[in-house]
Amino acid sequence: MNFKALILTGSVVGMALHGCTSMGGLNSDSLQKFSSAQELIDNKNINASNGAAKEYVYYWDPKQSNQDVQSLIPKKYLSSYCNAKGGKFSLLQKSSMSLIKESWTKKLLSTYSSVHQGVGAYQCLQEDGQRWIVSIEPVAERKLDTSGETRVVSLHTKMMTADEVKKFYSSSIVSTVIVKKTKADTQVNKNIVANTAAQKKAEEKKNSQQANQNRNQQPEIAVKPAEKVVETAVKPVEKIVDKPQTQQMKLFVAARKDLNKGQNQINACNNAEKAYNYGKLYGSSGINAYAESGVLFARCLTNVPAYSSKFSNPKAKAAGILQNLASNQNHTGAKHMLKQLK
Fold first, then answer.
1. What is the pLDDT of residues 284-300, one digit of tens each?
2. What pLDDT does 225 receive?
3. 109-138 burial, b for 16+ CB within 10 Å, e for fewer?
4. Buried-most residue among 173, 302, 310, 322 (CB within 10 A)?
5. Cβ–Cβ < 8 Å for 298, 259
6. What angle separates helix 244-261 from helix 103-110, to the nearest 10 degrees?
7. Number of H helices and number of E strands within the chain?
8. 54, exposed or middle or buried, with CB in 10 Å at 0-12, 13-18, 19+?
9. Each residue of 8-27: b (16+ CB within 10 Å) or e?
10. Does 68 have pLDDT greater than 90?
11. So what's the pLDDT on residue 13?
């Protein structure tokens, strides 16, 4: 079956189901009974019941921060099984998260060690000489519910042959190669333009010198004008315009980063305002950039005097934004800030 086709994630029914995902009873003796890594995957429900990807918590809401993240469970199970067989478990190929199409989701997941340390292709060299390879790849990410900040990642675990690993992980870096090639082509285009201009200047100088020489030797002979150098137009690289969802997300992330660090506050507030003014857009990242940027916007109106001074009544405007998010988006943070304003 095509690995990239398995992007349907296992369903999750509320927080309770995620709370039950654990590694209870994991020890060498309990793992020895499995005759293969595939049998372990099936019996321990590392994937969803239909074989598709399964959701694991990689970030808990601060109220539940005492709980262990679940996103490393697939790797831990397979590593422990390999060790129980007297084998050596090691990383074979890093994951580029190629099954996730939204670039901002990739960037978000890559910032969490609870995700990037548990994905990729791993091989086990058992004591009895057997070798097997397993691939653990993220296919989606989302916020678990609207009332908290817990986030989950959908991981698909699959046994692979060496050829399958080579094919999949080679094709997953094609996009990176294309980006590098585009940059190289841009530099080549610049060089062509520069060389053409230099050649034209040299040709004109040569023709001028030849004309002066001809005048001195044969004044009666008309000097043939220099031929015009025809330049080949170089088509500029087309600029790719981001989707509105991507533009909104970029503005929100930039604003949150600067405000959290206490730097470039006026620029950060302008970015938050722009992101909020995009309105509610529906993307695949799982982050409500509209609501989150609205909270940042309200925060600027109440806590950044250099920015809020351009509004006639910044506190009332902030209250209006928070009331909108609390009523229409059921945003917990907005409700909390609204109580503090009153």
1. 456 788 888 889 999 89
2. 60
3. beebebbbebbbbbbbbbeeeeebbbbbbb
4. 322
5. no
6. 30
7. 14, 5
8. buried
9. ebbebeebeebeebeeeeee
10. yes
11. 34
